[in-house]
Design a protein that fits this description.
The protein is 44% helix and 16% strand. By secondary structure, the chain is of the alpha/beta class. The structure holds nicotinamide-adenine-dinucleotide and 2'deoxy-thymidine-5'-diphospho-alpha-D-glucose (DAU). It catalyses: dTDP-alpha-D-glucose = dTDP-4-dehydro-6-deoxy-alpha-D-glucose + H2O.
Length: 354
């Protein structure tokens, strides 16, 4: 039995679906169902006795303690977080609450329960904290990619809150001997990605005939990893990672935002051409830049490959095509996600262009 937090979100739901597709070990899925949590992502395992969904907060010490005592999981994997940089700029409070205070309370609950385990169960237990490359800050054009020894230099309220959570996880290992592992991953993309993030937003807006908003000059670089590859990396670190260690996860796929959007337009032009015969590129609109926008992220995943033999299965070209096809095949999911809360956010962020 494992306990996953945030398993109704983008990466968490992909992780739960993959986990149950690959074995029979049950999952307790604790999720607060914020705007980003969607039970529909888990429709394929609805009613599956191996999947126990619990609606609740990682910051609820009593609830987490009860789940640990009742199910005695061999691992806790913490995906739960507020994850959208733009939202953190508009309102950092929820990020501090979930990413910092929530992670702290989760650690406290795990520490109290772990302390009472028998030695054998103690040896087997792992807490894996899922984090981001954004904690390392921003790279200049020719800087080497981030490795695990880079300094933490978070630049947004989101990345600062994730950095704080990483430090807490590290401290709980160092001080209390909690058996933790941390992964810092680059930008994910794939199925069930909430359409507030660049790739699903562009696919959705393109098909809806809306503007494709590019922040600033569109030359910011992100390092893209197909979500299923992130899930396989987490499984690998869970099974073989050294206690207290950090593993960077990335796909060696650095791309400028404008190039990503051009690629999406080209695939959509091919798979679902506009009725007027024009390219989706004509919908591209340059908008005001994100405040404090990090220029470049790039992950050096050498350690994970060298020590644990992990490599991504998808290239950007194969993964992005699969992703566009998934959105074309799952328009009902997209329509359901574009709910009231999401629409309010679109209005606030993009005003009349929403
Ligand atoms: P997401 O926003 O899609 O999902 C987050 C999930 O956490 C949602 O289901 C939400 O309901 C749940 N949640 C939020 N607050 C909670 C709380 N207090 N208690 C319980 N559940 C809560 O996020 P994501 O993109 O799937 O990211 C998952 C994790 O991976 C995050 O920790 C994020 O920082 C990290 N990460 C994301 C990316 C990426 O590209 N998306 C890359 C690297 C790391
Ligand atoms: O690097 C890992 C991080 O990647 C994760 O930790 C975050 O949870 C995840 O949201 C993501 O952060 P980014 O800020 O990089 O992702 P986002 O999709 O919001 O933006 C990707 C790039 O595209 C970024 O440079 C901003 C730009 N952008 C984004 C949106 C939503 C645009 O140009 N236009 C847009 O409308």
């Amino acid at each position: 039995m494992i306990l996953v937090t945030g398993g109704a979100g983008f990466i968490g739901s992909n992780f739960v679906l993959d986990w149950l597709a690959q074995g029979n070990e049950p999952v307790i899925n604790l999720d607060a169902l914020t705007y980003a949590g969607n039970r529909e992502n888990l429709a394929a395992v609805d009613g599956d006795p191996r999947h126990i969904f619990v609606h609740g907060d990682i910051g609820d010490f009593e609830l987490v303690s009860r789940l640990l005592a009742e199910h005695q999981p061999r691992a806790v994997i913490n995906f739960a977080a507020e994850s959208h940089v733009d939202r953190s700029i508009h309102g950092p409070e929820d990020f501090i609450q979930t990413n910092i205070v929530g992670t702290f309370r989760l650690l406290e609950a795990v520490r109290a329960w772990y302390g009472q385990l028998a030695p054998e169960a103690k040896n087997a237990f792992r807490l894996l904290h899922v984090s981001t490359d954004e904690v390392y800050g921003s790279l200049a054009k020719d800087d080497p990619a981030f490795n695990e020894n880079n300094r933490y230099e978070p630049n947004s309220p989101y990345s600062a809150s994730k950095a704080a959570s990483d430090h807490l996880v590290r401290a709980y290992h160092h001080t209390y001997g909690l058996p933790v592992l941390t992964t810092n991953c680059s930008n994910n993309y794939g199925p069930y990605h909430f359409p507030e993030k660049l790739i699903p937003l562009v696919i959705h807006n393109a098909l809806a005939g809306k503007p494709l908003p590019i922040y600033g000059d569109g030359q910011q670089i992100r390092d893209w990893l197909y979500v299923k590859d992130h899930c396989s990396a987490i499984r690998r670190v869970l099974e073989g990672g050294k206690l207290g260690e950090v593993y960077n996860v990335g796909g060696w796929n650095e791309k400028a935002n404008l190039d990503v959007v051009h690629t999406l337009c080209a695939i959509l032009d091919e798979l679902s051409p506009r009725a007027d015969g024009q390219s989706y590129r004509t919908q591209i609109t340059f908008v005001t830049d994100r405040p404090g926008h990090d220029r470049r992220y790039a992950i050096d995943a050498t350690k994970l490959e060298r020590e644990l033999g992990w490599k991504p299965a998808e290239t950007f070209e194969t993964g992005i095509r699969k992703t566009v096809q998934w959105y074309l095949d799952n328009q009902a999911w997209v329509n359901n996600v574009t709910s009231g809360a999401y629409r309010d956010w679109l209005g606030k962020q993009y005003g009349a262009n929403a």
